[in-house]
Specification:
heterodimer; A: about 575 residues; alpha+beta; Heat Shock Protein 90; about 15% strand; B: about 240 residues; alpha/beta; Rossmann fold; about 20% strand; globular
């Protein structure tokens, strides 16, 4: 898997990241498996994973150095743990000596150079170079002491035997070195195989991630399993900070540092040392090309610089995998969003079609039929039947008004509102709005006032008429029957203000703040006054689309409210324009 | 306006709509023909020579606009459009391609009958040449070029009279902004709807009882103006 990506990257460095992700997303698991197997059988070194991040190279030195250090580290330093192997190798030499001692002296003398190589090879393959070297020296010494004349002395009489002994020592040292190197390499291979296996497992898990939270749990799982380390994830929040994990072993100093960081692209990586435990914590961003999803804090432990470097490398390797997966998720989400958007649009179109045709056609038949009935002399003569027919007409008109509202609302959400601007006389707009709602306003006294010399307004009259109508309906709904609703139109500093004042329940400052929201309805009236809460939202959207503003003021609860629409007026004075 | 019985052709694919239209028209002395699609409608228009056509826009075989264009290629018969869309641009387009007027569903029978009568009147006007148009308290003598309100002659400027003259020729029917601008002004003033708005305001001050609430010269928002044939009291049924 990893090797496959390297290949792709190397062959075509200019391949854009997204295509690469798409290419990688198209993999199947069999293919993945064969790639991985190949990777392991070729003994490919982890350090061939692509490294776009130069910063890492600076931090760690070259990859090659680090892996060399990994290999040599145990052979150059003594640790308390090295003592038993040394004793064991001495014991081996002793054992060989004892066996040789039992044998016939002449035979033993012939076997000596070969027999003493056995403990050296055992020590080299089992315990490393130091025990092997010790076994070489001890073997030489034992051979000299026990088997070369003069016996029980380190002296050597025969120069030929002295040369043999030196040769044996050299051979023993060389073979111990060779054998221990073999051992080291085997161990390193095994370690690499394990790491690749873990990374492969991790890639598999990433392939199955469909949300960011899947991904985060995959990261945490991997870090704790592969590194055996404590890890914590800080999710990025909407306000640009990071949310601390609910529980976890993160020390205070790390939490404080993270709290001071801001979630944006290019957020810096940090290495923080926790003073009391001397643990090194590595803090890295988890991000795709466009978004920072959070920070990972990993306890690297308190080992030597080499250990820290190698673990850092491992953490960064997986974060690279993670960022590729995040890009994939970003793409998937964008596609999902687009699909939802399309669906919503189709649904809205279907809804619009249903409303305007399937619902309105029967309404047209009912309204028309009722109007024919109403004009029949027979029915006009009978008051009871006539009032029933009128009721039908009225209800149909109400229903049609609601449908019109819904149509307006879908029009707002569908594509925004595209007003058809035209110079219009504000008087015409006000008259039409009042006339269209004459029936609903019939319980109230309507006072209409126009200022002299009103300028024309450049608006979509239909939309403004609808907005004003909504304000009128609200005024009628929220004020008692028989009270007065005044509609005033005046010019003010180049703008035309249409205002609707009622003597109703008024509006509280809290309600005022929420007014612009779609479907907002005050709790005070939800139980008593019917409505959908769409009215004011439609009105304000339509007015804004026409370059106007809408505003509601109230002197307080129970003191009535005034809703005003301000529209841009014509600059030229009306009376100056005409005639002969 | 009863010359004899007027024949009205209803072209609409919905039986429920045709049913009430038939009832409504028959109640007012029309004789009614029905067609449920464009092909039948065009055939009936050719062979039965109706006096008036009521045309729905949503037909199963052809869009109403195409039917209208087909009709207008050989006939001058008054056409009133039934539309569900209250879309001003479409209304203007239909009027420009020869429709006499439109009503938006749902509508009352009285509204449609008023339009129908206005369309028929205009159609026969050209034949009979009665020069005086009555619109409520207003009478306009198209030949003598005089206007009187409640029997009192009123003075209009040349442009005001021109505006009233055009509207009176189409009394009861809507006249588009374009047509008014084209017939009153010349040159680049033609495109300026602000002139028209202000001219209408001035004319209303002379002919309306309350110029702020016009009942004779009414605005058809986004489309044009209409001179009402009679004053209406409140909502029509």
């Amino acid at each position: 898997m990893l090797i496959l990506r390297v290949g792709v990257l190397r062959r075509d460095q200019e391949l854009p990241g997204r295509d690469l992700v798409a290419a990688v997303c198209g993999r199947n698991d069999d293919h993945l498996m064969s790639c991985t197997t190949k990777a392991i059988s070729l003994n490919s070194h982890l350090s061939v994973i692509p490294k776009p991040a130069k910063a890492r190279a600076k931090l760690l030195g070259s990859k090659f150095d680090v892996s060399e250090l990994d290999g040599k580290r145990p052979s150059h330093r003594f640790r308390p743990g090295d003592v038993p192997p040394l004793l064991m190798s001495l014991l081996c030499v002793g054992l060989v000596t004892a066996v040789l001692f039992v044998l016939d002296h002449k035979l033993a003398l012939n076997l000596v150079p070969v027999a003493y190589l056995i403990p050296v090879i055992i020590a080299a393959t089992q315990w490393g170079i130091w025990p092997a070297t010790l076994a070489s020296v001890a073997g030489t010494a034992a051979a000299d002491f026990f088997f070369l004349p003069p016996f029980y002395s380190f002296q050597v009489d025969d120069p030929q035997e002295a040369v043999d002994l030196m040769l044996f020592l050299v051979v023993a040292l060389v073979s111990s070195n060779l054998a221990s190197r073999l051992r080291r390499e085997t161990e390193a291979l095994r370690q690499r195989e394990k790491e690749i296996q873990q990374l492969y497992e991790f890639s598999r898990r990433l392939a199955a991630c469909f949300t960011v939270s899947d991904l985060i749990s995959a990261i945490q799982n991997y870090l704790s399993r592969a590194l055996g380390q404590q890890a914590a994830f800080f999710a990025a929040m909407a306000d640009g900070h990071f949310e601390p994990p609910k529980s976890g072993p993160v020390p205070k100093v790390v939490q404080e540092r993270v709290a001071s960081m801001v979630a944006k692209i290019g957020v810096a990586a940090h290495v923080i040392v926790d003073e009391p435990t001397q643990n090194v914590w590595l803090v890295r961003a988890v991000c795709s090309e466009t978004t920072v999803h959070g920070l990972v804090a990993v306890n690297i432990g308190s080992g030597s610089r080499e250990v820290v470097d190698s673990r850092t490398r491992q953490v960064e390797d997986i974060l690279e995998e993670v960022s590729l997966t995040l890009q994939r998720l970003d793409i998937e989400r964008a596609m999902e969003d687009a699909r939802l958007h399309l669906q919503a649009q189709l649904l809205r179109d279907a809804f619009h079609g249903t409303l305007s045709h399937e619902l309105r056609s029967p309404l047209a038949a009912i309204r028309g039929s009722a109007s024919v009935l109403d004009s029949m002399p027979l029915i006009r003569g009978d008051d009871r039947i006539h009032s029933l027919v009128e009721a039908i007409s009225d209800e149909v008109a109400d229903l049609d008004g609601f449908i019109q509202n819904l149509l307006s609302a879908t029009r707002v959400t569908a594509s925004g509102v595209n007003p058809r601007l035209e110079w219009a006389d504000p008087r015409d707009i006000v008259d039409a709005a009042i006339q269209r709602r004459e029936r609903r306003l019939s319980a109230h006294k309507i006072e209409i006032e126009f200022a002299e010399d009103l300028p024309l307004v450049n608006v979509d009259s239909g939309l403004i008429e609808e907005s004003l109508g909504q304000l009128l309906e609200n005024a009628a709904k929220y004020s008692p029957s028989g009270s007065t609703i005044s509609v005033r139109t005046r010019a003010e500093r180049g703008r035309v203000i249409l205002s609707v004042s009622d003597q109703g329940v008024g509006i509280t400052p809290d309600e005022q703040r929420q007014l612009g929201r779609r479907s907002f309805r005050s709790h005070r009236h939800q139980a008593t006054i019917p409505g959908s809460g769409l009215g004011f939202w439609i009105a304000s959207t339509f007015v804004r689309a026409n370059g106007g503003t809408i505003d509601i003021s109230s002197r307080g609860q129970g003191l009535g409210a005034t809703a005003s629409i301000a529209l841009p007026g014509s600059r030229t004075e009306a009376s100056g324009l005409t005639d002969e | 306006m009863n010359k004899s019985t007027n024949v009205v052709l209803l072209i609409d694919d919905e039986p429920k709509i045709r049913r009430f239209l038939r009832a409504g028209f028959e109640l007012h002395g029309f004789s009614v023909l029905e067609a449920e699609n464009a092909a039948e409608g065009l055939k009936a228009a050719t062979f039965n020579a109706p006096d008036l056509i009521i045309l729905d826009l949503d037909l199963p075989d052809l869009h109403g606009t195409e039917v209208l264009e087909g009709l207008r290629s050989w006939s001058n018969v008054p056409v009133i459009i039934l539309s569900v869309v209250s879309n001003e641009d479409e209304k203007v387009r239909l009027l420009q391609s020869g429709a006499d007027d439109y009503v938006v569903k749902p509508f009352g029978m009285a509204e449609l009958l008023a339009r129908a009568e206005a369309a028929l009147r205009r159609y026969f006007k050209t034949a009979t040449e009665n020069p005086v148009v009555m619109a409520g308290p207003l009478s306009v003598d198209l030949v003598g070029r005089t206007v009187s309100l409640n029997e009192n002659q009123i003075r209009l400027t040349r442009k005001e009279y021109r505006l009233l003259h055009i509207l009176a020729m189409h009394v009861g029917l809507v006249v588009t902004h374009d047509q008014l601008l084209r017939e009153i002004w010349s040159g680049n003033q033609r495109d300026n709807i602000q002139y028209l708005r202000i001219l209408v305001r001035k004319l209303r001050q002379k002919i309306e009882t309350d110029p702020n609430h016009p009942r004779l010269l009414v605005t058809e928002s986004g489309v044009g103006y209409r001179l009402q044939a009679r004053l209406e009291n409140g909502l029509e049924g």
